[in-house]
Design goal:
Chain lengths: 805, 243
């Protein structure tokens, strides 16, 4: 029988369907391990295989989903891994002979590798390796990793299957709303798993066929590998007390042909499906011819990824900044942080660079006297726990690099190899093994050649060696190297020339460690930015640089537009808009509007705090009276936004922002006219009742009351009944407002009310908070209930007759 | 006791956040100034949060209509509306999730230094983040339950459905909450504030988890609207059909 992957490229194959529900029908008791049960009921398991085989399945899966040592341990059967997996493979083979392919199934262990979980990656590799070996011994045609939801875990399983067996490996993840549980998109899965050597990739389980159509389309756009799909028969629903997968064989069959047409090569089904589903799907396929792969459009780009973010480097992409700042030899503060294991500092450095526009971070832990084999993997762990960008591992020590590559749950860029034979043959195999791209420096044992042609020759040797180790050309990025202009200014243009030559003759992407050009010279930023512009003109695709230098950032943005990489100037315009509007914005035009009262109202309504004070000043010139400013400029705006909010035409945050802007106006008036009355009468004591520490809602009510001109004493959160009483008495409060978020704390409200009624019968009490209802307010004898901040203001206004508005 | 500790990913989308900010209830696009605040504080929350979770599976020692007692754990699940769901359960999964103390500290500072809108938006995003990581833990637990041929119950937390909030103390003890820095105040509230504890039962018979399918629910919470303490207010405001 022909090899599985060769067949899959020529012919669309039909997979099988659910195992668990079929075994239950064969008598598997609930709660029992299907794999252990198989040892005593081999015929029952074979009945299921036979049913699928007879329904037309050409790929039959072993009953080994939970047959890893970690899963079997839960049943005290970790010692049976070899026996179960071998036996399971043989059972399928006995049924299908050489008339179908046998898929050796490996499922997730339920444990995530570091950093999400606690199990070390290398330990997971051993667990999966043991199972894969046993499946190979049992005679499966390929290893099928399925239903994984974490990229780190499936990466360990794929690595293990490739290390411990000679079989092709298919990888399948499960998706909800287009992402796996830990945030991986099909594109990212394709980038990482293809680089690690997967032979076929796809999706199974998930919510059903319809959702997986979109997932498979994204896969097809992202890879040229054969694809597989095995959807659930819809989501389980309850019908008359029974779980039912509601998609019938006919429902599922509708999707078979669309999957084939978009380019899927292996089509099967997952939970809830039966041989009848498989049969109907096979009949629905119009042809077994795989859909042709889309035409390749120009040279492929270099693709890197973290667990949840992909970055593409190539001539049709925007040029990329690789943040250079985590480097102890260039920066003393980083060296000190590494020495003290101050990882917060390192992570913060990473954040700053990402915020400033870097898409990748260079991580260099080569500290004099430090242990890089320990620092690099720890650095990778720390950065990928807090940040989601792909990493560039800046390290030439193979032992440290290997540890770092194991830790990084994505596709990294190795920085770097060079033309030296020793470097090539120690680093390139690691790149292949761990699915990383490499950055090649155009130097060798004799140093950096002066002339562009000689640098091209070294680049060619690096590309050839990388291809020899099986790396695709797009996973090699060449750095043509620049020397400092302090000693050899005449050589800068050689670098520019070398970039052009490498692009034309080798067709690989290029990168440049930029800052070296200015080494030893003042105003380094000038030189860095100018040289970046020259290099971009020669076709540079990425620069290792300092993104916090705004000249670098601006040169990148402008250079991308001028070199035709920014289609429609979209990025340029977006970036330009972002950078211009907040800083140095011109004084608001509304100051010049004829009617300053209207202008002030509009500024408050829109929550534009910065515009408020000039408008208040202008209005004061006209009115010369604080109360008129309040009544004509501030209060109407608050009332309008309040109405709009009540009618559902404005959002709560808008209401609060308008309140903050009004507060700015009130504070200004209070500070400048201390003698004049700015409060409008009415004192409110407010707080969250004892035991409740939630105060966001209460703070909003409190702020809004103040903004409407009431005198507000906010007692804070978890306020005892006695404190409410004392404050109300001392401040001669008109109204006491009580807030509670939880059913368990709102029972404190009647206690406060009772105390106030006894001691201060004239005071009105209003209540509110997430769980409080109008009904509850009546029950406990409150005078009023506000469903939201606007209602609270209206209530208070009603209870304070002195209030004029 | 075997407790799994997880560092959880936090990949919060704007759609998950809006319900917590009462955005999405008014028509039209989000005003630019609010959009900018959401942007800023989404980055703050993502940066400050150190999301961690605990998962522990316990066998049920005894079941009565009033209470569920667990083997090797002091936690008792009580409250008539909660316990009814566990009638056919043999085990439970205990979950605890927290965003860590950095969020609380920042919020306290923000309330001192900035306007109410800033605090409101930061707080809402943090709540969405807590919900998000709880959903991740839920999905992990449910996957395990379904794979073991049981059916998951809905997710329940102390303080809801008649289950006294006082149980929070035993909950934290039973799951080893100190491993991720979880404590309980004298009024039985979790510290850090943006934390969640919850239990999911392993049932022998299929149970309603229909909220998993609902698209029109006005929030991201996992209780059905029927069981939600906020239903009266929320539904009257949104006009959403009762789920």
């Amino acid at each position: 029988m022909a090899d599985f992957i060769t067949t899959l490229r020529k012919q669309v194959l039909l997979g099988d369907g659910a195992m668990g529900t079929m075994l239950a029908a064969q008598g598997l008791p609930p709660g029992e391990s299907p794999e252990l049960w198989m040892l005593s009921h081999p015929r029952a398991v074979q009945e299921v295989h036979r049913a699928y085989f007879e329904a037309g399945s050409q790929v039959i899966q072993t009953n080994t989903f939970g047959a890893s040592a970690l899963k079997l341990k839960e049943y005290g059967a970790a010692h049976l891994v070899e026996e179960i997996n071998k036996r399971a493979a043989q059972l399928v083979r006995e049924v299908v002979g050489d008339q179908a392919f046998v898929a050796g199934i490996i499922g997730p262990t339920g444990q995530f590798p570091v950093p999400l979980g606690t199990i070390p990656w290398v330990e997971l590799v051993e667990v999966f390796g043991q199972q894969a070996r046993a499946l190979e011994v049992g005679g499966v045609d390929f290893i099928f990793l399925e239903t994984f939801s974490d990229l780190g875990e499936i990466r360990a399983a794929l690595f293990a299957a490739r290390e411990y067996t000679r079989l092709p490996v298919a990888c399948s993840l499960t998706y909800t709303k287009g992402r796996t549980l830990t945030g991986t998109s099909p594109q990212i899965a394709a980038i990482v798993l293809e680089a690690m050597g997967a032979a076929c990739i796809g999706a199974n389980c998930s919510t059903g066929a319809e959702e997986l159509l979109e997932v498979m389309k994204e896969y097809r756009r992202s890879t040229r590998l054969p694809l597989l799909v095995e959807p659930n028969a819809g989501m389980p629903v309850l019908v008359d007390g029974k779980t039912v997968f509601k998609e019938t064989p006919e429902d599922m069959a509708r999707f078979a042909e669309p999957f084939r047409a978009l380019g899927v090569n292996l089509i099967g089904a997952c939970c809830g499906s039966t041989p009848a589903h498989i049969k109907a799907m096979g009949e629905a396929l119009a042809s077994r011819e795989p859909a042709p792969l889309p035409e390749q459009d120009g040279p492929p780009a270099t693709r890197l990824a973290s667990r949840s973010r992909a970055v593409t480097i190539g001539p049709r992409e925007l040029p990329v900044i690789i943040g250079e700042r985590i480097n102890p030899s260039a920066r003393k503060a980083v060296a000190e942080a590494l020495r003290q294991q101050n990882w917060d500092f390192i992570v913060r450095e990473g954040e700053l660079q990402l915020d400033a526009g870097a898409l990748l971070l260079d991580l260099n832990t080569g500290l004099a006297g430090g242990d890089e084999t320990r620092l690099l993997p720890e650095g990778v762990r720390q950065l990928q726990m807090s940040l989601d960008c792909p990493l560039v591992l800046d390290c030439t020590n193979p032992a440290a690099l290997e540890k770092g590559l194991q830790e990084f749950q994505g596709k990294a860029l190795i920085n770097s190899v060079n033309g030296d034979q020793k470097s090539l043959h120690s680093i390139l195999p690691l790149a292949k093994k761990y699915g990383a791209a490499v950055l090649g420096l155009t130097l060798n044992e004799s140093g950096i050649p002066a002339r562009a042609r000689e640098r091209l020759q070294i680049a060619r040797e690096i590309v050839e060696a990388a291809e020899h180790y099986g790396l695709p050309r797009e996973d090699i990025i060449i750095d043509c190297l620049v020397l400092t202009a302090a000693t050899s200014p005449e050589l800068a243009m050689e670098t520019v020339q070398a970039i052009k030559l490498v692009k034309v003759h080798l067709g690989v992407n290029t990168v440049l460690g930029l800052s070296n050009v200015s080494h030893g010279l003042p105003q380094r930023s000038w030189l860095n930015a100018a040289f970046l512009a020259l290099a971009l003109g020669a076709g540079l695709d990425a620069a290792i640089a300092n993104p916090l230098d705004h000249r670098i950032r601006e040169t990148m943005i402008a250079g991308a537009l001028l070199t035709g990489r920014d289609s429609g100037a979209r990025n340029y315009l977006a970036q330009a808009g972002r950078q211009v509007s907040p800083a140095g914005s011109p004084p608001s035009k509304e100051v010049d509007v004829d009617d300053p009262a209207r202008a002030l109202q509009r500024a408050i309504y829109n929550g534009r705090q910065e515009a408020v004070i000039p408008l208040v000043q202008k209005l004061l010139e006209e009115k010369r009276d604080v109360l008129s400013v309040i009544n004509e400029g501030i209060i109407p705006a608050l009332e309008t936004i309040g109405e709009h909010f009540a009618q559902g035409e404005a959002y709560l945050p808008q209401l609060i922002l308008a309140g903050d802007a009004a507060k700015k106006a009130f504070d200004f008036l209070k500070d400048n006219f201390p003698g004049q009355r700015t409060a409008q009468g009415g004192t409110v004591v407010i707080g969250t009742v004892e035991g409740d520490i939630h105060d966001i809602g209460k703070n909003i009510v409190s702020a809004l009351l103040e903004n409407h001109g009431f005198r507000v004493l906010d007692l804070g959160k978890s306020v005892p009944a006695q404190a409410f009483l004392e404050a109300a008495r001392r401040e001669k409060a008109d109204v006491v407002g009580l807030s509670a978020l939880m059913t368990t704390t709102m029972v404190e409200m009647p206690r406060v009310i009772e105390l106030l009624r006894q001691e201060l019968p004239g005071v009105k009490v209003i209540v509110g908070g997430a769980v409080v209802t109008a009904e509850y307010a009546r029950e406990i004898g409150a005078d009023g209930y506000g469903a939201d901040a606007v209602e609270a203001v209206q209530l208070v206004r009603g209870f304070c007759p002195a209030h004029k508005s | 006791m075997k407790v799994q500790i997880l560092n959880l990913p936090l990949l919060l989308t704007r759609e998950e956040i809006y319900p917590f900010l009462n955005l999405g209830l008014a028509p039209g696009s989000i005003p630019a100034n609010i959009d900018k605040l959401v942007d800023t504080y989404l980055r703050h929350v993502t940066r400050l949060a150190k999301p961690q979770g605990l998962i522990r599976v316990c066998s049920i020692r005894s079941l009565s209509p009033e209470r569920v007692e667990l083997a090797d754990a002091s936690l008792v699940i009580a409250g008539s509306r909660v316990v009814a769901h566990f009638a056919a359960c043999e085990k439970v999964t205990l979950l605890a999730a927290t965003l860590g103390p950095g969020i609380d500290r920042f919020l306290a500072g923000l309330q001192q230094t900035s306007g109410a809108a800033d605090a409101f938006i930061f707080n809402g995003i943090a709540s969405a983040a807590a919900e998000h990581i709880t959903e991740t833990l839920d999905a992990l637990a449910v996957r395990e339950i379904r794979r073991s041929a049981y059916y998951p119950t809905a997710r329940f937390s102390p303080g809801y459905g008649g289950w006294p909030l006082e149980s929070q103390q035993q909950f934290i003890e039973s799951i080893g909450g100190e491993k991720i820095g979880l404590t309980v105040t004298s009024h039985y509230l979790l510290q850090p504030v943006k934390s969640v504890t919850a239990v999911i039962g392993w049932s022998r018979v299929p149970l309603d988890r229909s909220y998993e399918l609902l698209r029109e629910k006005p929030c991201q919470g996992t209780l059905t609207c029927r069981d939600c303490p906020l239903k009266e207010k929320c539904l009257s405001k949104t006009g959403a059909s009762q789920a």
